[in-house]
Amino acid sequence: MTSPEPILSINDVSLVFGGVRALSDVSFSVQKGELFSIIGPNGAGKTSMLNCISGRYHPTTGGVHFKGQNVTGMKPNARAELGIGRTFQNLALFGHMSVLDNIMVGRHHLLKNNFFTGALYWFSGAQNEELEHRKFCEDVIDFLEISHIRKATAGTLSYGLRKRVELARAVALRPDLILLDEPMAGMNLEEKEDMARFIIDLNEEWGMTVVMIEHDMGVVMDISSRVMVLDFGRKIAAGLPAEVMANAHVKKAYLGEEDDEDDSVSGKVA
Questions:
Q1: What is the per-residue pLDDT for 199?
Q2: What 8-state DSSP symbol labels residue 154?
Q3: What's the superkingdom here (predicted)?
Q4: Which structural domains are found in the chain, ordered by start?
Q5: Which of 6, 48, 169, 170 could cysteine-pair with 22, CB 3.0–4.6 Å?
Q6: Structure confidence at residue 115 as a pLDDT band (50, 70, 90)
């Protein structure tokens, strides 16, 4: 029986900035419904990979395919329209806007009106459309348990709550694939537990495929379907969480332990 086509395929992607090689011939795939984590030491190329997937960067060589379509040359907004959402390692909220308005921004790709049809559309259906989008945003707010801050100015919130608002904005797009760049960075234990629960529910109940960068190995091991490890821009391991953490190359990258020169990289690209 043949395996279903992956929702995301990364084929021999390399990324070079001047003389710096951020990624070197990285290939992997993600199946629909997976919670796929990318880990590695600082500077390993993790965020560069997410940027190649979302369209902020275009690979120097190699290709990115999403739902069977080559999106390598597409801009970020075009990929968002296809169903790719993301959060950022450094918060990218509009600090002067309310929580609800920030989340509504995540729906703008789904609006039907444009410059040429806007005036006519306003009278024919824009108000109903706005109500529909606002209702969905309210559902996201309830899901992420931030109803109590829905009218608050985003810039006045604690770091943990702002991270949750940024997740809400990405979820508001209702993406098929959501990219999470260190969603739990800077959080305390209780905040991490809440965020992990939300990510699991997005994956299992909302049906979103997740590609996540995260440094908390406890979280990664607990919630991931599969894990890939990058080191100096190269993939050194991929597979089930337990297999990856037992890999000698991974131990060397994280702990400086010596590995056997003949050890094989665990896991196979699906």
A1: 98
A2: G
A3: Bacteria
A4: 1-83+224-270 (3.40.50.300)
A5: 48
A6: very low
Q: Give the residue carrying structure tokens 């024919």.
A: 124
pLDDT at 127 over 80: no
Report the Cα–Cα distance between both ends of the chain, in Å, rounded.
14
Distances (CA, A) of 230 to 27, 36, 39: 11, 13, 6
Token couple for 169: 């904005």
- Alpha helix ranges (H) inside 89-151: 99-105, 118-121, 127-143
Residues 6+ apart with CB under 8 A from 20: none
Residue 121 has pLDDT above 60, yes or no: no
Count Cβ atoms within 10 A of the Cβ of residue 116 and give its class: 0-12 exposed, 13-18 middle, 19 or more buried.
Answer: exposed
Is pLDDT of 268 > 60? no
Could you tell me where the DSSP H helices lie in 144-240? Answer: 159-172, 189-204, 217-223
Give me the residue label for tokens 């795939």: 29
Residues 6+ apart with CB under 8 A from 90: none
Instruction: Give the pLDDT score at 125.
Output: 53
The Cα 266–Cα 268 span in angstroms is 7
156, pLDDT greater than 50: yes
Distance (Å, whole) CA 183 – CA 185: 6
Q: 120: which 2 tokens?
A: 């006519």
Look over the chain and give the mean of its residue pLDDT values, rounded to a whole number: 87
Phi, psi of 155 (to 5 degrees): -70, -15
Cβ atoms of residues 210 and 203 within 8 Å: yes
